[in-house]
Amino acid sequence: MKFADLGLSDELLQSVLDAGYDTPTAIQAQAIPSVLMMRDIIGIAQTGTGKTASFVLPMIDILAHGRRRALMPRSLILEPTRELAAQVAENFEKYGKNHDLKMALLIGGVQMGDQVKALQDGVDVLIATPGRLMDLFERGKIMLNGCSLLVIDEADRMLDMGFIPDIETICSKLPPNRQTLLFSATMPPVIKKLADKFLSNPKYIEVARPASNNSNIAQHKIHVSTRGKREALRHLLRTDNVSTAIIFANRKTTVRELAKSLQQSGFSAGEIHGDMDQNARNAELQKFKDGAISILVASDVAARGLDVKGVSHVFNYDTPWHPDDYVHRIGRTGRAGASGRAFTFVTSEDAEAIANVEKLTGMSIPVFTLEGAEAAPAAREDAAPRESGRRERAPRGEKAPRKERAPKAAAAEPVVEREEAPVREARAPRIQRDEPRPPKDVLTELPSKPGEWNGPVPGFLSVSAL
Ligand code: AMP
């Protein structure tokens, strides 16, 4: 199967070819013809499968005909994080270069003025995070009744971040006869319910999960003590042919401390986590993409879905508390046909977490035994009494194995900072959102601060001709 067989226009095929692709991925081959035939789609696919182009490409051809109107975007793509929204915008720029389409990026952390102006001029494609979209909608700056195509991307991630109520509200404001495309790496009951409510006779497409089925990723777990982790990591970084690596930790403090310690050990490391402002996150990510640093220590929220080419290694410095995060983390390597290696550190306290990962991925992750003098004592420490320092305990609301969540102890525990508080049920309280919604009077007077982030590609923030 070639892209030319999918029913896309010649102009679009040319830009796909210019981007270096001639063979569609599985999700693209299955989704593109159906989207062009205006069907609703449920795509069970995660980043790394080429899913972005599976909706961006047909959307460009669908939107090629029609007229823009002020304040009434013709299509809407909802993304859980600003970084993912920016990545989708990059895709539109790349593939839409031969089309006269305009897009706007509506994300938190940037001033609203340019975004409102973009909407007033009329856009074909609006890419938004739910919080910022709701703010503008509630202030009457945007009308959604002209929006005939909706994409809900990374729906399970939206659920984790507490966005489902916002998405339901947004769906109810769009015309009922619109086309809806929903993508999710997993299909928890809340997402299934959302799909049942807002999609009409969808085509269900499921593609292989890179985590469990991507043979390009060699996965290993390493038994190690909490105290021995840093040494084990340094050992692997030095000996496992690492060219570029993303190292995931469960807490922001760990991300910060680990990045610092790696730098002190002479590694070219940076960090990305939710406490950094958008400017700093973008700068660090760019350094990693440009090769100025070869190691990025990251938290889940900051790094979810990021598409960085040629990452040779993923390290789970902490076993993720939620198995979905494992899938997303290791999907940063072994992308688009390349091979990669993923190592997961497992302490004696991670037994339940790693068992959940193995249940989800349907495989027993092979044990990797560290060789070398530095690593061996670290692994043996597992049998030693627990160190007296700060215990790795999950703070309130965190994804932790149930046994760690004794209600009384949790209440007495100081709230340790965390990247996000995942919410597994639609009605659970939202703990942290991508862009906290300030009160309306603050919004109207949102200052234009010099140096405020202006997006990964500044042109995105105002309407740009594609
Ligand atoms: P995504 O799953 O959308 O995050 O895409 C993952 C990566 O696959 C991106 O770097 C895309 O540029 C790349 N990609 C998209 N379509 C194709 C294709 N047909 N063949 C090879 N790589 C692709």
UniProtKB/TrEMBL annotation:
Catalytic activities: ATP + H2O = ADP + phosphate + H(+)
Cited InterPro entries: DEAD/DEAH_box_helicase_dom, DEAD/DEAH_RhlB, DEAD_box_RNA_helicase, Helicase_ATP-bd, Helicase_C-like, P-loop_NTPase, RNA-helicase_DEAD-box_CS, RNA_helicase_DEAD_Q_motif
Enzyme class: hydrolase
GO molecular function: ATP binding; hydrolase activity; nucleic acid binding; RNA helicase activity
Domain called Helicase ATP-binding: residue spans: 32-205
Statement: the UniProt record of this protein carries the keyword Nucleotide-binding: yes
Record-level GO cellular component terms: cytosol
Region (Disordered), start-end ranges: 374-466
Motif, Q motif: chain positions: 1-29
GO terms under biological process: response to temperature stimulus; ribosome assembly
Biased composition, class Basic and acidic residues, residue ranges: 379-407, 415-443
EC number assigned by the record: 3.6.4.13
Domain named DEAD-box RNA helicase Q: residues: 1-29
Keywords: ATP-binding, Cytoplasm, Helicase, Hydrolase, Nucleotide-binding
Residues annotated as domain Helicase C-terminal: 231-376
Domain of life of the native organism: Bacteria
Homology family: Belongs to the DEAD box helicase family.
Name by which UniProt lists this protein: DEAD-box ATP-dependent RNA helicase RhpA
Organism expressing this protein natively: Novosphingobium sediminis
